[in-house]
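CHAIN AND CONFORMATION:
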Amino acid sequence: MKNFMTYTERTGGHHPGPPRFLQLGERIVDPGFVDLGHGYDRDNLAPTIAGNPERDPDAYDADAFTWQLREKPAGSKAGLEYAPNPYSDAVRYDEGSHNTAEFQPDEPGTYVLELTAPDGTHELTIEVFPGPGLEDGFEQFDLDDDDAWGEKAGGPPRIDLESHYDPESESFVIESNPELAPDSFATESDLRVSFLPEDRASLDRDEIDVEGNTARVPIEALDEPTRVFAAPFDGVTLGATDEIVLDPDETAVSYPNRAPEWLDDAVVYEIFTRSFAGQKGETDFEFLTEKVTYLDELGIDVVWLTPIVPAWSGTVDTPPGGPHGYDTSDFFDVAEDLGTIEEFEAFAEACHDHDIKVCFDLVVNHAGWDHAYWQDTIADLGDDPEDPYAFPDIQAWDTESPYFDWFDRQTGSTDNDATPAQTSFFDVRLHPNLNYGNLALREHILAAVDFWSDIVDAFRCDIAWGVPHSFWTEARRLTREKDTDFMWLDESIPRIPSMGESEFDLHFDSMGYMHTAHAVARGERPPEDLFEKVRARRSYGFPEHSRLINATENHDESRIYHEAKANGVREDPAAAERGALAASFTLPGVPMLYYGQERLIGEYGQRRESPFSDREDETDDIEADPYKRAFMNWEEYDAPHLEFVSALVDFYHESPVTGPEATLVREAYRTDASEDVLVFGRDAGEEKRVVVINFGAEPKQVDLRSVVDTHDQFSDTDLEVASAEDAVTVEVETLAVFETPTLFDQGDSR
């Protein structure tokens, strides 16, 4: 059963959200565009929604909320802005009815903003740290080089807040546990941690006694449960913010920025919904409910369905990319071809009966062309285009529509749209972007979050950097106040550690882990690179409590089997896939299966038809990888492959060293097959293991230290083939896990 709680905080009014920590050069700005050419982040300063959010709220008056900069450091000339248009090629349109603000500090120090709202005046503190002071600066993200972060400055530091009540001093003691990134140029003495209370709390910043990187909060300074936020700075780089709640009545501490505990033993399974039945048009909630037993027998803990809401792509015979559903036409309903909300609730209930969580695909960076509110903003359309997959030009807008400002726009016209032309998700006109500068739109989407979180247990959030951080913070707090175990998964490509600042529990790692797994499966890179990518997560700034997903494919990425077979050099693509899956389940992280991986869908599945197969002017991702969104192969499949995956899932649940928490160690070994073999250690204290994974077509021999027990915990078989004074030799087909009394960490080989 879901753990529902009553509202405790959101009814308090229109506060401006938690305090912020920034580094000089960073800005709180929402460019409005969601594509590769206009940044990878959106944010703004926004009032929270008071009370229960409404689905179709009246517009908020432009003067209902006013922002002003009340305090700033000496020498600062910074001010508050709206839509400051950081990109010269496309200027964002400003209707003038916004209730949000944007801000770029120009001096280090403390800024205090003031929000005047219908329920009173509220403060927001922003602490700004000095910039890195590098002559050429540095790049945070580089799509061509996933290791670009920290090349010049090193990675950001991390903290992991822990607290207890000390009755002797009658205060809460908060340990920040700061830690430099492994590649940092700073020293331990450079580290400092800053603490800020939530501005709406009675606790004043001056009442927090900070000594070194430890803080003390007198219990007499607290009159209710109070949030305290902290961030580390190493003199060059600012790290991710963490938060803690101090409860004076219970002398208790809670950690709202931690992932739910159930996630640490969870296996995620993604379904491309309309392909799961194995035949076109056959998938519905009744079929999905029938297959819950299959998921349970496979050992799945979380099932993520691609969008189930009404969408144009779900109604077209052969839509580009398949019937993906990422073009929402109603945020509060389910697609007619899948069934009714009651039938979806029955599916969720069946999952819960088998202890399986349900993850809803929340797509709120854009809507779909068919959305009634979007259509209400259009006054005059041009002729229907000849191309059945294109949309008419918009010749005039209905600026009097109450939803006109619910969508992002740009000044000027485009080849298709009159002024102010729409902005679209990656320039796909099917997907008009949403305007999170409009408070009524924010309330509409927050109401959708509220609605679905009563039914499901988690959200996967499409292109999370396409929605402002301020919204995610508010939405996550809403769900956690109802269900303390509710989980949030971000799709951020590239990965963004700041998404873990009171926003998301689980993060994508496509450009690091997944793409590396594909390169290893193709035979282009050694398996050791997977170890390096997981170890590098610390240098990217993800805190110890953050969870990253070890996925080898999803609906937007190529099937790893197809990559190995069509584009690789390995003799046995299926063996390469099994090796990649073994790594995903034994390296630190949360393992994920994409539907059909367990049945070798890349060999036995039925590919979907691309609408552009006979056109030279167009293509889609179904042509690029024919099995990416293929129909599930229920009848014909590779039985030994399925048995291996099932055993792998069971082993993950049973082993004391798998999952996110056991330490990753670079264990000593020797082999002549380094192009095929990955060896590492997992240290869970008393329990220690050596893991050997083989991506090759034939069994490979590996020399391990003589203290390692050669009885394989995975296959329950002794794999020793030879021994010497200083080593034992084992022969591994795909995966072997050995007990060991010690691990020999060779350190970082880079």
User: Anything to note?
Assistant: The CA atoms of residues 162 and 314 lie 47 Å apart.
